[in-house]
Amino acid sequence: MSRRGEKRIFQRFLRAFAVFSVSVATVCGLLLCVNPAEAWSSVQTLLLDGFLSKAGRSKTLLIWPLLMLTGLSVGCAWKAGFLHLGAPGQFTLGAFAAMSGGLLLNLPWWACLLLAALGGALGGAILSLIRHQSRISEILSAVMLNYTVLCLTQWLWEDGLSAAAETASMIRSALPVFLLGNQAAVSLGLPIALVLCLGAWAVLRFTVIGFEVKTGGGNREAAWRAGMPVDRNRKLLLVLSGVFSGLAGGVCLLSGMTGTALSVISVRMGYAGLAVAMLSFAHPMGIVAAALVSAGLLSGGETLSGTIPQETGMMVMALTLLGSAVLLGKNKKKNRG
Amino acid sequence: MPFLIRQTLVYAVPLMLVALAGVFAERSGIINLALEGIMIFGAFMGVLFVRTVQEWGWFQPAYDASNVLALQGFCFLAMLFAAAMGAVFSLLLAFAAINLKADQTIGGTALNLLAPAVVLFFIRMIANQNTLNMFKGDAASWFMLKKSMFGYGRKDNMNFLGSTFVDKVYVATYICILVFVIMSIILYKTRFGMRLRSCGENPQASASLGINVVKMRYAGTVISGALAGMGGFVYVLTTANCSANGDVAGFGFLALAVMIFGNWKPLNICLAALLFGLFKCVAASYSTLDINGDGVYMLKELNINTNIYRMLPYVITLVVLAFTSKSSRAPKAEGIPYDPGKR
Amino acid sequence: MLHISKQIGDAAGIADFSLRLNKGAFHGVLGAHCTGKTTLARILNGMCIPDSGSILIEGDEADLRSPRSAAAWGIGFAGEESPYVHGLDLIGHLMLGSEFAPSGKLGKRAARTQAAEFIEQYGIPLDLDSRADEMNRAEWLWAEVLRMVMQKRDILVLDEPDVVFTRQEMDTLVSVLRKICGAGSAVLLFSRRPETVLSACEEATLLCPGRPAETYRTSEATAEDFLCLMRGENAPQAPEKKEITVGGIVLETRRLTVRDQDSADDPAHDVSFEVRSGEILCLLGRPDSGWDALGAALIGAKEMVSGRIKLDGKDISRASVRDRLRAGMAYLPRNIRELGAIDYFTLEENLSLQGYMHYQESGWIKRRQRRDEAAHILDASGVSGRADLDSYADELADESLWLAMFSRELERRPALLIVEEPTRHTSERTAPFIREQLLSVRANHRAVLLLTSQPEEAMGLSDRILVLHEGEIMGEFDPANTSARELGWYMSGQWRQQRYGGAAIEGEDE
Asked: HEC states along C176-194?
């Protein structure tokens, strides 16, 4: 990595850090105004509980792979030139596919994960079809699809799966878990996500197809005139983003996170993944780091009790996304790649 | 049939108002994806206003005396407040996009995320549950126009026009139509509107003629926020019985679809809104739809799962847009931050 | 008395420029490419801020921070960009910015009456009933002049109108502007051609490389004097063109029609021509005459509706971009930054864009090899002094980027090089390098297709010139036997050779 490249990465890190800090500070300020008495303790819980307490840590370690995967999904799409808002829908599809596999067919975990990936890929393929056959903006079609998937899976759930859920069990399909010392339990989802992030980084940096994707995302016309199959790559990328989000859904389901409703968690993970990806300028290694920090924040947010509601975590993520929007402004092409 | 028409209007009118909100922003050159978020925020603020004013008891005597005029005035004040708050919320987008040159699509999405989070935060703090309701009574008793107010008894039937447009309606809906018409006229027939539109198409040329592009874009975004905020409040007033829960089920995005389908022009937006409103109406109240008035609830008989109906508006949107997007034309300079020094 | 006095130091290439403009004066600013003319015009329009110096208007210091403030100070500007605003008709455009009504409503009728009066008074050849979306660049320029008059601007700045107008249209413009000066406004005309300034203005300020700007009275100078001054003392001579025997046909197009989704007319219609090896063919036309669409269609970036393209005898009409590149085509668009390079890529990555398939092995990029090849190209381009392989493309100046990309294409030794306006981004120093390279391609028995809107460029470099107007060929010329003036007639569509569908024309008259 050249000197200038290093300097650039450092600058981006600083900017991302600044954005994150400002968001956290804003929310802390809000807490202070709203409930001065409990503000200090809530801030502490929010920021640190995800890492310091044992329960918090397990929650963080559960959320981290999900954010990594949804972040990767959005990040890859960003590199290829689009803003991917369909993550929640693909997450839901993946989770649902995994659940069907587990409940109806009693498949082992790896098969369920595969189904999850396929489910997500289906979502991606539909988006790709819509986008290439018509000129609907990718944002509108993704959002509409999200809502459609939500209703669809709700229907399928009511129509058959809920009955199956009462009779069958998913023990066979649950992801294997291993213990980190005696500190926390980690599901297999985490190494899977880490490996995928590493793989994405390697592909983008070292392979021809990575180069084509980056070029296509940077300047479609230039890539086109250099003879690159821009459209084919874009279609592939959309499906791939679907796979990542679908896997996230599968991992979520199979790790046993059934506390919150699927619709709520898919939206949270999907959009938090967006924030993570934008904050790290879509760099896969950056996504790993940003996902960890955000996971800690979100798990700390969930632990908040008393009169401070749990939305605090999402507020920080939303503000972070706003800050990233400033950093990624169209005129500042330096920050886009 | 009167019910069908009435309900369609109830869904169509906020839809067209929010779509016009989108038009104002985009015509000035700013992509406003945050319509959903602004609606949520405006809805919350409107309900909060109603609730707080009820708590203070200001309009209680009017309610007790069935003073329709005063109550409608109360409703109107709430609408204005929601609009003002929507404008304030949209300032976030305006500042980020215009002064900080942020990416407008990401910024709009961020606001869409921020609004429900902030709203739910405050709802939980105020009411300790997930929904914020009116303090006393419900929207129907406070703000709805009923035939009893015009001297009809419970069993009397008004004529067709009456039962469609006068009985069981909210004046808010009609006020929104008026606002829509006025704002459309402003956009197309006044000096301000012409300048606004030129800022969205060719900001460099507009600036070299002495137009303050920054001011125009702020104006466009703030007006957009006001209209969306008002639309959001009217939406929860008429369809959710004046209660806010941090979600409008994608209405803001449906409004975007209406805007695109209506090709950024007010008249087409009206028609598109009626179409989409019809679908929303069917989806929401299919089981109580008695089309012919003969007591047969046809759609309910078909026994299709509720979720299919809920899915209908979104799927129809996709289908409709797929066939029309090819010929639509967005303002040329939208989404591109204005940089005075640019070539 | 109206003064503008400007001493600007070191603002993007202008050093110490001074100018005094009097009320009612018609003043010219003359300078070759890249001598700061456009920067100066942009400063006057408020789009660029000088590093030092001041602008005084009628004695008051004018702070031209933005186009708005320039307009407030009474400066009107007509430049390169189209002032078209979709959705407004012509009258709307004329009214924009100073609408003719006290209240909020639009006073279109009043505007139209006023416009008609001014057209009558100054003799502006503009049809008020033209449709705004069908007007060409020349008509827009007239509209802008009319608008400046209607808005009572004291100072009219025109940036290179002679690029858009033909010689005759320029004559009309000059007479209109003289009348406007007579009414009290001052006109500042920027141009690259001494003849324009000499015939129109009373005084001219010359921007010369390496010397401070000086003002001369036009009655005391001739075109040659100006040209010498503009070029500077150590001007490199134009390179010699060797006689080359032209070989076989490299590129052949037959009845090529290109369609553009955004516009109503076909940008190029029924175009047939051929380029032979060892030849430089030039397609000359105004910027909107369609050569950019043709170039894009040849490389495969724009869709061809009908016709055939053959490269070296093989039909490539349906071939993909990659296949055409492999077959030996190379293409350099004039806005290289938008179409040919990625801003946030390093120079190394940008240089490898065209040949990236060469440095790969089963999908993995051979980074060492890529770097070596990129270094080689960089050395050949002459940019190595100013940038290195790890610079990001958005840090490079337009000129350096152009040179680097130019070398990138040449390195591939294409059978046909299509290049748009090769000397547009270059200064006097580097333009000869480009010319040399193009001539060496020709000397190596390969073919060059030159697409440009500058007659001088066409005449200096090419062996044959085809003039395009609104997507059709107007005529074929031998550069040695024609003049910029004659080419101008054809470029504006007024004349047409019989061979290409024109009626019999009168004899060529200067």
From this structure: HHHHHHHCCCEEEEEECCH
Q: Same CATH fold, C250-328+415-510 and C3-231?
A: yes
Read off the pLDDT of residues A88-127 as tens digits, 9 standing for 90 and up: 999 999 988 888 888 777 778 788 889 999 999 999 999 9
DSSP-assigned states of every residue in A26-52: HHHHHHHHH-HHHHHHHHHHHHHHHHH
Closest CA to B262 of B7, B26, B11: B26
Per the structure, the complete domain to which residue A238 belongs is given by 3-336
Query: What is the identity of the amino acid at C480?
Result: A
Cα separation, C7 vs C53, in Å, equals: 4
Query: Distance between CA atoms of B116 and A121, rounded to whole angstroms?
Result: 29
**Cβ-defined contact of B331 to C86 (cutoff 8 Å):** yes
Residue C345 and residue A215 in contact, taking contact as beta carbons nearer than 8 Å: yes
DSSP A107: -
Locate the domains of chain C by residue range. 3-231, 250-328+415-510, 338-413
User: Could you tell me the CATH number of the domain that includes residue A125?
Assistant: 1.10.3470
Per residue in C449-474, pLDDT (tens digit) is 988 887 778 888 888 888 888 888 88
- CA-CA distance, C414 to A148, in Å (whole number)? 52
In whole angstroms, give the CA distance from residue A323 to residue C191.
45
Is A300:B103 a contact under the CB 8 Å cutoff?
no
Nearest to B50 by CA among B79, B21, B11: B79
Does this model's pTM top 0.90? My answer is no
Q: Is the dihedral of CA C439, C440, C445, C447 positive or negative?
A: negative
Lowest mean pLDDT: which of A274-288, B271-285, C2-16? Answer: C2-16
Nearest CA in chain C to B213: C68
Query: In the predicted model, is pLDDT for residue C336 greater than 60?
Result: yes
Q: Best of B105, B106, B261 to disrupt the A interface by mutation (most A CBs within 10 Å)?
A: B106
H-type helices in C429-473, by residue range?
A: 431-443, 455-461
**Is residue A257 pLDDT above 70, yes or no?**
no
The CATH superfamily assigned to C250-328+415-510 is P-loop containing nucleotide triphosphate hydrolases (3.40.50.300)
Residue of B nearest to A328 (CA): B103
The count of domains in chain A is: 1
Residues C16 and C53: their CA atoms lie apart, in Å, by: 8
State the pLDDT at residue B343: 35
Determine the residue among C86, C154, C160 to mutate to test chain B binding: the one whose Cβ has the most chain B Cβ atoms within 10 Å.
Answer: C86
Q: How many CA atoms lie within 13 A of B155 on its CB side?
A: 0
Name which of B67-71, B199-203, C37-41, C240-244 the model is least confident about: C240-244
Q: Which superfamily does C3-231 belong to? A: P-loop containing nucleotide triphosphate hydrolases (3.40.50.300)
Q: What is the predicted ipTM?
A: 0.88
Choose the closest CB to B204 out of C81, C92, C96: C81
Q: Which two tokens stand for residue C121?
A: 């008074």
Q: Which of A4, A206, A215 sits opposite C390 (nearest CB)?
A: A4
